[in-house]
Amino acid sequence: MSAGVPIIDLDVLPPRSRTEPRSLRLRLAAARPVLVAGVIVLALAVLGAAVPPSHRMTRVLSAGGTASAAFVLGPDSLYTAQFGNDPNSSSSVRAFSLLDGSLRWAVGVPQNVQNLVLDPRAHVLMGRSGVDPRMIFLDADSGDELWHSADANTSVVGMANGGVLIRTDLSQTETRLRLADARTGRQVWSRTVDPTAELGPDDLYGDSPSRIVVVATTGELTVLNYADGAVLSQGNLRVNLPADNDPYFPGDFVAVSTVGDHVYVSRRADGRATLTAYTTVPFGRQWQVVGGPVGQVHECATVLCVADTRFVSAVDPATGATRWSEPNWSTAFGYDATHLFAYDQQEKPGSALLDASTGKLVRRLGQTIFVGGLLLRSDDRFRARVWVAQTDPSDGRTHIVGSLDSEAPYGCEARGGYLACPTAAGPTGVWRMP
Fold first, then answer.
1. Which of 200, 189, 151, 192 is nearest to 173 (CA)?
2. Which CATH number fits the domain that encloses residue 238?
């Protein structure tokens, strides 16, 4: 750390000496494949001098011979789904060991699978497609089918703690939420609520949800206990949530965001902007400010971020007062206790670190994304090259620990000391972090 700011060595990859002899310069001026190979070898040699072998990422497996339609990391396995002979009616789901890269099991399933969700506590793997209502639930240890669902107008909100939260839109006036046992499909509880526009809070989609905040299109709010569906509180946000709703345009706009134990309503009506904070249990209005920023609200380290794609503003969680507004950033979220990770508005978004208390630029990071505590940056000088950086907790410095053979740093997942990414060659790769 330097003056409380993380040192991130991502802007400059290991340089080539400016004093190299003429004979070496001539050799490096050979055909492009030789040039690229030479530079990569040189870069890795310099990285090796700066980063000990014990602090480099290690590839542990390459899953299958073609690209995966979906994959998910578990505590000891990588699970993948690949389309079968008929992409609309069959898929192959496989499990690979993270210890030695071996294939643990493979099964064919009679449906399209484009999304995989794992509940590691219940040892259940769910497969579903983007549009088909069919869902299949497999034993994560063996691949055996446990149960399946094909109910119309039905989707899974989340799967955690041995339960599957399922939403079914019954009509224009009713939505049913029910919790099913992840291994058997047995219904634990069911509750019918008003047509739902928003489900939260953010940790509802994590590993250990405890509450469900249901916001209807009419503004009615209901808070349910996740385990048994009991009603914890109810209230009215006094807004209607329209289908056509874009904060970028100067017309009327309303957004409801559930963050932790609070619900925030950001609204613009007849040119008047308001931001209102409500507590969920018990339900009640905490504060309201007039004339502030408008947009989606989410937690950002020590502040709340309000983003509308044109700029990012930070407001005080206790009072709603605007601390700062910075243009040219489309969104930002918490990076650590004092910094935000922000994206700009370029066609290929660049990223940067901002000071959470002031919004000032700390460091530009180029085309970098933040995944599970890792920084992944694409390199324009090399095709299919993404550099991976990791923060050393002993000194607070962020070091390059290796690279991926990937076209762009997107679609990756980090969990339990492993990183899984699509690769340029097709198969999903998994690397063990130092």
1. 192
2. 2.130.10.10
